Amino acid sequence: MNVIIYYEQFSFGGVDKHLCELVNNWKNKKDNITIVTNRNNKGFQKIRNSLKKTKIVYFNSYSYSYFIDFLYKNNLSFLRFLSYFFQPIFLFLSIGKFIFLLKDINKNTIIMSSNGSYPGSWANIAIILAAKFCKIRKRILLIHHESSYSNIISWVFAFFIDKILSRSLTHLICVSKATLNTIKKRRNLNYNYFKTQIIHNDIKILEKNLKKKLFVSLKKKYCLFGILGRADAYKGHEDVLYAISQIDLKYRNKIKLMLIGLIDFGRKKFLKDLSIKLGIKKNIIFTGYLSSDSQIIINNLDVVIMSTRDFEGFGYTALEAIKLGKPLITTDVGAIKEFVDPRYAEIIKPKKVKEFALVISKIISRIKYYKKRAAIYKKKYNKKFEVSETYRSVFVDRN
Length: 399
Hints:
Layout lengths: L1 E6 L6 H11 L7 E6 L4 H6 L7 E4 L5 H10 L6 H4 L3 H16 L7 E6 L6 H12 L4 E6 L11 H12 L4 E4 L2 H10 L8 E4 L17 H6 L1 E6 L8 H9 L3 H4 L2 E6 L4 H13 L6 E5 L5 H6 L3 E4 L9 H8 L4 E4 L4 H4 L6 E3 L4 H13 L1 H15 L5 H10 L3
Helix pairs in contact: 5-6, 10-16
């Protein structure tokens, strides 16, 4: 079986992790997997060397997403409004380029377009439309995050794309019910033309990742709480800072909050200034991006926090915390309750500072109990890794 996985992006995140887990745990060695992506895909650059026995094809589209990335990198984002009118041109140019790429491949090849959100990258839509034109039999769109609403300016074009895409897809896969529900509520796909399937993400814990030690000197003195990932505003870091400032001093003095991940200058300054204003500067550590695998980082924390304010298409950090046996505090957003059991993790409403403060105080005062509970959850959650097999079953489905 020949499989082409396409994704276009300009940063990094859960899509990269999903690709690694899917490809590196693929069991049928006779299958040929090719990854097609843009050369300036930062996330792919990060994972490239970790991918096993996979052919790589670099392909730069003419997509709208590419143009928007260019505007932001050159401080021309104010022109984005005008760019809406060029969306159809970008899309049709991309379709043409993809047709040239796909025209000679076997019609039984599987095309899977892995898209962050919907519609997300327009190139991810274009390859599906091109595959339909080239009469490739299986055309799969994978969506990881929530759907956006179509705006007033481009509503007619968005409606047209939803309809033509509906007739071009054979399968729509979402990583959660929450993600699929946003597409159903916000867009105009016709589900009579294709199959839909929910395939939750999974990770395989590697024993080698459990041996490396980080933050050794800090762990001797403090209880390490950690927030992983890009420090974007919607991730709710400030909610946790406000919460820590409200905790009784006897508990607060035991806490170090590690903010782990990329953060731009303005956001870092805002959070640093806020920590000073709240009198908790000594409790906050900005590590920046760490090159260590996220499994290694989480395994060296005492408690993991996910403070997202609006939506998580899945929530890899929560899953890793569970499978590594770490106490977890997470907000109730998106897909969280689809796989996190509230009997073994603390699930609170987003933006609720007092709830965060109460839960953090509770955990720090009874840390041994919560670590024991997390260890029990780890054993209960332990299951066979089957994601790659599930995807393959979709690929070989002849119906």
